[in-house]
Amino acid sequence: MGGTANRYHEGMRFSERTSWELGENAFAGAIREARASGRELLDLTLANPTVCGFDYQESALLGPLSEQAAFAYEPSPLGLTAARAAVAEYYSAAGSHVDVGQLCLTTSTSEAYSYLFRLLCDPGDEVLVASPSYPLFDFIARLDNVRLVEYPLLHDPHAGHGWLIDLQALRSAISQRTRAILVVHPNNPTGHFCSLSDRAALQALCAQHNLALIVDEVFLDYGLPGTTAVSFAAASSPALTFVLSGLSKVCGLPQMKCSWIAATGPAAQVAAAMERLEVIADTFLSMNTPVQHALTSWLGGRDHIQTQIRSRMIENLAQLDKALAGSHCNRLSMEAGWTAVLRVPRTIDGVDFCTAALGQGIMGQPGEFYGLPAGRVVLSLLTPPDVWRKGVALLAGLA
Protein backbone atom coordinates (compact mmCIF):
# COMPACT_ATOMS: atom_id res chain seq x y z
CA MET A 1 0.00 0.00 0.00
CA GLY A 2 2.79 2.42 0.89
CA GLY A 3 4.58 1.88 -2.42
CA THR A 4 1.33 2.37 -4.33
CA ALA A 5 0.63 5.59 -2.48
CA ASN A 6 4.12 6.88 -3.19
CA ARG A 7 3.81 6.15 -6.90
CA TYR A 8 0.39 7.78 -6.95
CA HIS A 9 1.90 11.01 -5.62
CA GLU A 10 4.91 11.03 -7.94
CA GLY A 11 4.91 14.25 -9.92
CA MET A 12 2.29 15.89 -7.73
CA ARG A 13 3.23 19.43 -6.77
CA PHE A 14 2.24 20.62 -3.31
CA SER A 15 2.32 24.14 -1.90
CA GLU A 16 5.63 25.41 -0.57
CA ARG A 17 3.67 26.43 2.53
CA THR A 18 3.44 22.74 3.45
CA SER A 19 7.00 21.69 2.65
CA TRP A 20 7.79 20.87 6.26
CA GLU A 21 10.34 18.34 7.41
CA LEU A 22 7.93 15.57 8.38
CA GLY A 23 10.49 13.04 9.55
CA GLU A 24 10.78 12.01 13.19
CA ASN A 25 13.67 13.60 15.06
CA ALA A 26 15.95 11.50 17.22
CA PHE A 27 14.40 12.57 20.53
CA ALA A 28 10.84 11.93 19.35
CA GLY A 29 11.95 8.50 18.18
CA ALA A 30 13.50 7.80 21.58
CA ILE A 31 10.23 8.77 23.30
CA ARG A 32 8.23 6.51 21.00
CA GLU A 33 10.54 3.60 21.75
CA ALA A 34 10.45 4.27 25.49
CA ARG A 35 6.64 4.23 25.48
CA ALA A 36 6.50 1.09 23.36
CA SER A 37 8.89 -0.72 25.71
CA GLY A 38 6.27 -0.92 28.44
CA ARG A 39 8.64 0.29 31.15
CA GLU A 40 7.57 2.99 33.57
CA LEU A 41 7.90 6.47 32.07
CA LEU A 42 7.50 9.51 34.32
CA ASP A 43 6.10 12.13 31.97
CA LEU A 44 6.87 15.59 33.36
CA THR A 45 5.55 17.33 30.24
CA LEU A 46 1.78 16.70 30.61
CA ALA A 47 0.09 19.99 29.70
CA ASN A 48 -3.45 18.81 28.92
CA PRO A 49 -5.43 19.66 32.06
CA THR A 50 -8.20 17.17 31.22
CA VAL A 51 -5.81 14.22 31.86
CA CYS A 52 -4.07 15.59 34.96
CA GLY A 53 -6.50 14.44 37.64
CA PHE A 54 -8.49 17.64 38.23
CA ASP A 55 -12.13 17.61 39.34
CA TYR A 56 -14.16 19.04 36.49
CA GLN A 57 -17.73 18.44 37.68
CA GLU A 58 -18.53 17.01 34.26
CA SER A 59 -22.30 17.03 34.59
CA ALA A 60 -22.37 20.75 35.34
CA LEU A 61 -20.07 21.48 32.39
CA LEU A 62 -21.93 19.31 29.90
CA GLY A 63 -25.42 20.38 30.98
CA PRO A 64 -25.54 23.66 29.03
CA LEU A 65 -24.76 21.82 25.81
CA SER A 66 -28.16 20.11 25.94
CA GLU A 67 -30.22 23.30 26.19
CA GLN A 68 -32.86 23.74 23.50
CA ALA A 69 -31.26 26.94 22.20
CA ALA A 70 -28.16 24.95 21.22
CA PHE A 71 -30.12 23.26 18.41
CA ALA A 72 -30.95 26.49 16.55
CA TYR A 73 -28.41 27.60 13.97
CA GLU A 74 -27.76 31.32 14.34
CA PRO A 75 -24.87 32.30 12.08
CA SER A 76 -23.16 35.32 13.65
CA PRO A 77 -19.69 36.01 12.22
CA LEU A 78 -18.19 37.67 15.30
CA GLY A 79 -20.05 35.34 17.68
CA LEU A 80 -23.44 35.38 19.34
CA THR A 81 -24.05 38.57 21.32
CA ALA A 82 -24.71 36.65 24.54
CA ALA A 83 -21.46 34.71 24.16
CA ARG A 84 -19.44 37.85 23.54
CA ALA A 85 -21.17 39.48 26.52
CA ALA A 86 -19.87 36.59 28.66
CA VAL A 87 -16.32 37.34 27.48
CA ALA A 88 -16.84 41.06 28.15
CA GLU A 89 -17.93 40.16 31.70
CA TYR A 90 -14.77 38.07 32.12
CA TYR A 91 -12.70 41.18 31.42
CA SER A 92 -14.94 43.38 33.53
CA ALA A 93 -14.38 41.12 36.55
CA ALA A 94 -10.65 41.76 36.16
CA GLY A 95 -11.08 45.54 35.90
CA SER A 96 -10.94 45.84 32.11
CA HIS A 97 -13.69 47.35 29.98
CA VAL A 98 -14.14 45.57 26.65
CA ASP A 99 -17.29 46.29 24.68
CA VAL A 100 -19.12 43.44 22.94
CA GLY A 101 -18.47 45.20 19.64
CA GLN A 102 -14.72 44.86 20.21
CA LEU A 103 -14.84 41.05 20.40
CA CYS A 104 -14.53 38.31 17.80
CA LEU A 105 -14.95 34.65 18.81
CA THR A 106 -12.76 31.98 17.21
CA THR A 107 -12.41 28.25 17.71
CA SER A 108 -8.82 28.52 18.98
CA THR A 109 -6.04 31.02 19.53
CA SER A 110 -4.34 29.45 16.50
CA GLU A 111 -7.32 30.46 14.40
CA ALA A 112 -7.26 33.91 16.02
CA TYR A 113 -3.61 34.33 14.99
CA SER A 114 -4.48 33.27 11.45
CA TYR A 115 -7.34 35.78 11.29
CA LEU A 116 -5.03 38.56 12.45
CA PHE A 117 -2.20 37.62 10.09
CA ARG A 118 -4.69 37.75 7.21
CA LEU A 119 -6.13 41.03 8.48
CA LEU A 120 -2.79 42.76 8.85
CA CYS A 121 -0.39 41.20 6.35
CA ASP A 122 0.04 40.76 2.64
CA PRO A 123 2.12 37.78 1.46
CA GLY A 124 5.74 38.29 2.52
CA ASP A 125 4.97 40.83 5.25
CA GLU A 126 6.59 40.39 8.64
CA VAL A 127 5.49 39.94 12.24
CA LEU A 128 8.03 40.32 15.05
CA VAL A 129 7.89 37.53 17.64
CA ALA A 130 9.80 36.98 20.87
CA SER A 131 12.36 34.23 21.35
CA PRO A 132 12.11 32.04 23.36
CA SER A 133 8.44 31.33 22.74
CA TYR A 134 6.05 28.61 21.62
CA PRO A 135 7.02 27.23 18.16
CA LEU A 136 3.44 26.90 16.85
CA PHE A 137 3.66 30.44 15.47
CA ASP A 138 5.99 29.25 12.73
CA PHE A 139 3.41 26.90 11.26
CA ILE A 140 0.55 29.41 11.36
CA ALA A 141 2.64 32.18 9.81
CA ARG A 142 3.90 29.93 7.04
CA LEU A 143 0.39 28.81 6.15
CA ASP A 144 -0.64 32.47 5.90
CA ASN A 145 2.44 33.48 3.85
CA VAL A 146 3.75 35.65 6.66
CA ARG A 147 7.39 35.86 7.68
CA LEU A 148 8.27 35.77 11.38
CA VAL A 149 11.26 37.78 12.58
CA GLU A 150 12.52 37.05 16.09
CA TYR A 151 13.46 39.57 18.74
CA PRO A 152 15.24 38.32 21.88
CA LEU A 153 14.08 38.07 25.46
CA LEU A 154 16.98 38.44 27.88
CA HIS A 155 17.19 36.53 31.15
CA ASP A 156 18.43 38.77 33.96
CA PRO A 157 18.25 37.08 37.37
CA HIS A 158 18.69 40.47 39.02
CA ALA A 159 15.66 42.00 37.28
CA GLY A 160 12.39 42.10 39.18
CA HIS A 161 10.79 39.39 37.06
CA GLY A 162 13.88 37.78 35.53
CA TRP A 163 13.21 38.51 31.86
CA LEU A 164 13.41 41.63 29.71
CA ILE A 165 12.62 42.48 26.10
CA ASP A 166 15.74 43.51 24.20
CA LEU A 167 14.18 46.76 23.02
CA GLN A 168 17.21 47.81 21.01
CA ALA A 169 17.13 44.56 19.03
CA LEU A 170 13.36 44.90 18.63
CA ARG A 171 13.67 48.38 17.17
CA SER A 172 16.41 47.22 14.82
CA ALA A 173 14.20 44.37 13.58
CA ILE A 174 11.47 46.69 12.31
CA SER A 175 11.49 46.97 8.53
CA GLN A 176 9.23 48.35 5.81
CA ARG A 177 7.51 44.95 5.70
CA THR A 178 6.79 44.79 9.45
CA ARG A 179 3.08 44.87 10.23
CA ALA A 180 2.82 43.75 13.88
CA ILE A 181 4.68 42.91 17.07
CA LEU A 182 3.59 39.78 18.92
CA VAL A 183 4.05 39.38 22.67
CA VAL A 184 2.95 36.55 24.96
CA HIS A 185 1.86 37.82 28.40
CA PRO A 186 2.85 35.85 30.44
CA ASN A 187 5.33 34.20 28.14
CA ASN A 188 5.36 30.49 27.44
CA PRO A 189 7.67 28.90 28.55
CA THR A 190 9.52 31.56 30.59
CA GLY A 191 6.47 32.47 32.68
CA HIS A 192 7.24 36.18 32.92
CA PHE A 193 4.78 39.06 32.59
CA CYS A 194 5.59 41.92 30.27
CA SER A 195 6.72 44.68 32.63
CA LEU A 196 4.94 48.02 32.71
CA SER A 197 7.98 49.73 31.21
CA ASP A 198 8.24 47.16 28.39
CA ARG A 199 4.49 47.46 27.82
CA ALA A 200 4.72 51.24 27.45
CA ALA A 201 7.70 50.88 25.12
CA LEU A 202 5.87 48.35 22.94
CA GLN A 203 2.79 50.55 22.66
CA ALA A 204 4.85 53.62 21.81
CA LEU A 205 6.90 51.71 19.27
CA CYS A 206 3.80 50.33 17.55
CA ALA A 207 2.13 53.75 17.48
CA GLN A 208 5.29 55.38 16.11
CA HIS A 209 5.64 52.87 13.26
CA ASN A 210 1.90 52.33 12.69
CA LEU A 211 2.13 48.67 13.70
CA ALA A 212 -0.44 46.49 15.41
CA LEU A 213 0.30 44.88 18.76
CA ILE A 214 -0.84 41.26 19.18
CA VAL A 215 -0.89 40.06 22.81
CA ASP A 216 -1.46 36.42 23.75
CA GLU A 217 -2.84 36.31 27.32
CA VAL A 218 -3.99 32.69 27.57
CA PHE A 219 -2.07 32.15 30.84
CA LEU A 220 -2.97 35.54 32.38
CA ASP A 221 -5.11 34.03 35.16
CA TYR A 222 -2.29 31.83 36.45
CA GLY A 223 -0.01 34.23 38.24
CA LEU A 224 1.97 33.00 41.24
CA PRO A 225 1.30 34.51 44.70
CA GLY A 226 2.73 38.01 44.95
CA THR A 227 2.43 38.78 41.24
CA THR A 228 0.06 41.26 39.64
CA ALA A 229 -1.51 40.31 36.33
CA VAL A 230 -2.75 43.24 34.28
CA SER A 231 -4.33 42.62 30.89
CA PHE A 232 -3.32 44.70 27.89
CA ALA A 233 -7.07 45.30 27.54
CA ALA A 234 -7.14 47.10 30.90
CA ALA A 235 -6.25 50.57 29.65
CA SER A 236 -6.32 52.61 26.48
CA SER A 237 -3.40 52.19 24.11
CA PRO A 238 -2.02 54.53 21.45
CA ALA A 239 -1.59 51.50 19.19
CA LEU A 240 -4.15 49.15 17.66
CA THR A 241 -3.98 46.16 20.01
CA PHE A 242 -5.44 42.67 19.74
CA VAL A 243 -5.66 40.64 22.96
CA LEU A 244 -6.10 36.86 22.61
CA SER A 245 -7.33 34.30 25.12
CA GLY A 246 -9.72 31.37 25.38
CA LEU A 247 -11.27 28.45 27.21
CA SER A 248 -8.30 26.14 26.76
CA LYS A 249 -6.47 27.84 29.62
CA VAL A 250 -9.05 30.15 31.23
CA CYS A 251 -11.37 27.21 32.00
CA GLY A 252 -8.98 24.31 31.40
CA LEU A 253 -11.21 23.16 28.53
CA PRO A 254 -9.07 22.73 25.40
CA GLN A 255 -11.61 20.30 23.93
CA MET A 256 -14.44 22.87 23.86
CA LYS A 257 -12.72 24.96 21.19
CA CYS A 258 -13.55 28.57 21.96
CA SER A 259 -11.19 31.53 22.00
CA TRP A 260 -11.48 35.22 21.27
CA ILE A 261 -9.87 38.39 19.99
CA ALA A 262 -10.42 41.65 21.89
CA ALA A 263 -9.53 44.76 19.88
CA THR A 264 -8.49 47.93 21.71
CA GLY A 265 -6.72 51.16 20.82
CA PRO A 266 -7.66 54.21 18.74
CA ALA A 267 -11.41 54.06 18.13
CA ALA A 268 -11.28 54.59 14.36
CA GLN A 269 -8.67 51.86 13.92
CA VAL A 270 -10.62 49.43 16.12
CA ALA A 271 -13.82 50.06 14.15
CA ALA A 272 -12.06 49.47 10.82
CA ALA A 273 -10.38 46.32 12.13
CA MET A 274 -13.64 44.87 13.44
CA GLU A 275 -15.39 45.46 10.12
CA ARG A 276 -12.71 43.49 8.32
CA LEU A 277 -12.53 40.79 10.99
CA GLU A 278 -16.27 40.28 10.59
CA VAL A 279 -15.81 39.52 6.90
CA ILE A 280 -12.95 37.11 7.63
CA ALA A 281 -15.01 35.34 10.28
CA ASP A 282 -18.08 35.30 8.05
CA THR A 283 -16.06 33.53 5.37
CA PHE A 284 -15.47 30.54 7.67
CA LEU A 285 -18.27 30.68 10.30
CA SER A 286 -16.26 28.21 12.37
CA MET A 287 -17.90 28.81 15.76
CA ASN A 288 -20.48 26.22 16.81
CA THR A 289 -23.73 27.20 18.51
CA PRO A 290 -23.80 24.83 21.53
CA VAL A 291 -20.42 26.02 22.82
CA GLN A 292 -21.44 29.66 22.46
CA HIS A 293 -24.60 29.08 24.48
CA ALA A 294 -22.57 27.32 27.18
CA LEU A 295 -19.94 30.06 27.37
CA THR A 296 -21.71 32.14 30.03
CA SER A 297 -21.94 29.15 32.36
CA TRP A 298 -18.39 27.94 31.74
CA LEU A 299 -16.73 31.32 32.21
CA GLY A 300 -18.88 31.98 35.26
CA GLY A 301 -17.65 28.75 36.86
CA ARG A 302 -13.97 29.11 35.96
CA ASP A 303 -12.81 29.55 39.55
CA HIS A 304 -13.46 25.87 40.26
CA ILE A 305 -10.74 24.63 37.90
CA GLN A 306 -8.45 27.66 38.20
CA THR A 307 -8.18 27.22 41.97
CA GLN A 308 -7.12 23.60 41.49
CA ILE A 309 -4.58 24.46 38.82
CA ARG A 310 -3.01 27.27 40.85
CA SER A 311 -2.76 24.98 43.86
CA ARG A 312 -1.05 22.31 41.72
CA MET A 313 1.36 24.91 40.33
CA ILE A 314 2.36 26.14 43.78
CA GLU A 315 2.73 22.65 45.26
CA ASN A 316 4.74 21.32 42.34
CA LEU A 317 7.04 24.36 42.34
CA ALA A 318 7.74 23.90 46.04
CA GLN A 319 8.48 20.21 45.49
CA LEU A 320 10.71 21.04 42.52
CA ASP A 321 12.75 23.62 44.42
CA LYS A 322 13.15 21.20 47.31
CA ALA A 323 14.35 18.44 45.01
CA LEU A 324 16.81 20.70 43.17
CA ALA A 325 18.46 22.07 46.32
CA GLY A 326 22.12 21.03 46.28
CA SER A 327 21.98 19.63 42.75
CA HIS A 328 23.56 20.92 39.56
CA CYS A 329 20.12 21.95 38.27
CA ASN A 330 18.37 25.19 39.10
CA ARG A 331 15.02 26.70 38.18
CA LEU A 332 14.85 29.99 36.29
CA SER A 333 12.65 32.70 37.77
CA MET A 334 9.00 32.80 36.70
CA GLU A 335 5.83 34.70 37.58
CA ALA A 336 3.02 32.75 35.97
CA GLY A 337 1.96 29.94 33.67
CA TRP A 338 2.06 26.17 33.64
CA THR A 339 5.73 25.60 32.78
CA ALA A 340 9.01 25.71 34.65
CA VAL A 341 12.37 26.14 32.93
CA LEU A 342 15.42 24.44 34.42
CA ARG A 343 19.07 25.16 33.76
CA VAL A 344 20.74 21.74 33.65
CA PRO A 345 24.08 20.24 32.58
CA ARG A 346 24.19 20.06 28.79
CA THR A 347 25.27 16.43 28.83
CA ILE A 348 25.49 13.51 31.22
CA ASP A 349 28.41 11.22 30.41
CA GLY A 350 28.46 12.67 26.91
CA VAL A 351 24.73 12.19 26.32
CA ASP A 352 22.30 15.10 25.89
CA PHE A 353 20.61 15.74 29.25
CA CYS A 354 17.02 15.06 28.09
CA THR A 355 18.10 11.88 26.32
CA ALA A 356 19.98 10.75 29.42
CA ALA A 357 16.92 11.52 31.57
CA LEU A 358 14.72 9.52 29.19
CA GLY A 359 17.09 6.61 29.64
CA GLN A 360 16.24 6.75 33.34
CA GLY A 361 12.51 6.85 32.62
CA ILE A 362 12.05 10.64 32.99
CA MET A 363 10.48 12.66 30.19
CA GLY A 364 11.23 16.39 29.95
CA GLN A 365 10.95 18.81 27.03
CA PRO A 366 14.27 20.03 25.54
CA GLY A 367 14.48 23.80 25.80
CA GLU A 368 15.56 24.07 22.17
CA PHE A 369 11.94 23.29 21.24
CA TYR A 370 11.08 26.80 22.48
CA GLY A 371 14.20 28.53 21.23
CA LEU A 372 16.00 28.32 24.58
CA PRO A 373 19.75 27.66 24.58
CA ALA A 374 21.20 24.21 25.18
CA GLY A 375 21.17 23.09 28.79
CA ARG A 376 17.53 24.02 29.42
CA VAL A 377 14.64 21.67 30.18
CA VAL A 378 10.96 22.66 30.25
CA LEU A 379 8.57 20.85 32.62
CA SER A 380 4.80 21.10 33.03
CA LEU A 381 3.54 22.16 36.45
CA LEU A 382 0.23 20.38 35.73
CA THR A 383 1.90 16.99 36.18
CA PRO A 384 0.04 14.86 38.76
CA PRO A 385 1.81 15.12 42.15
CA ASP A 386 2.81 11.46 42.51
CA VAL A 387 4.48 11.41 39.08
CA TRP A 388 6.02 14.84 39.70
CA ARG A 389 7.49 13.91 43.07
CA LYS A 390 9.23 10.81 41.75
CA GLY A 391 10.27 12.43 38.49
CA VAL A 392 11.88 15.60 39.81
CA ALA A 393 13.74 13.63 42.50
CA LEU A 394 15.24 11.37 39.83
CA LEU A 395 15.94 14.35 37.57
CA ALA A 396 17.87 16.16 40.31
CA GLY A 397 19.81 13.00 41.10
CA LEU A 398 20.76 12.58 37.47
CA ALA A 399 22.69 15.85 37.55
Key words describing this protein structure:
alpha/beta; globular; 399 residues; disordered N terminus; four-stranded antiparallel sheet; eight-stranded mixed sheet; 16 strands
Architecture overview:
- With 399 residues, the protein is of the alpha/beta class.
- It has 14 helices and 16 strands.
- The termini are far apart.
Order of helices and strands: HHEHHEHEHEEHEHEEHEHHHEEEEHEEEH
Q: Uncertain spans, ≥5 residues at pLDDT below 50?
A: 1-8
Radius of gyration: 22 Å
Number of helices: 14
How can the largest sheet be summarized? 8 strands, mixed
| Number of distinct beta strands | 16
Q: How far apart lie the N and C ends?
A: 47 Å
Strand content: 15-25%
Shape: globular
What portion of residues is helical?
Answer: 25-40%
Instruction: Output the structural class.
Output: alpha/beta
* Mean pLDDT over the full residue set: 94
Structure at a glance:
With 399 residues, this protein is α/β, with parallel strands linked by helices.
List the helices and strands and how they pair.
Blueprint: H1 2-9, H2 26-36, E1 42-43, H3 58-62, H4 81-93, E2 103-106, H5 109-120, E3 126-131, H6 136-143, E4 147-155, E5 163-165, H7 167-173, E6 178-184, H8 196-209, E7 212-216, E8 241-246, H9 247-250, E9 259-264, H10 267-284, H11 289-300, H12 302-324, E10 330-331, E11 339-343, E12 347-348, E13 351-352, H13 353-359, E14 362-363, E15 365-366, E16 376-380, H14 385-398
Parallel strand pairs: 1-14, 3-4, 3-6, 6-7, 7-8
Antiparallel strand pairs: 2-9, 4-5, 8-9, 10-11, 11-16, 12-13, 15-16
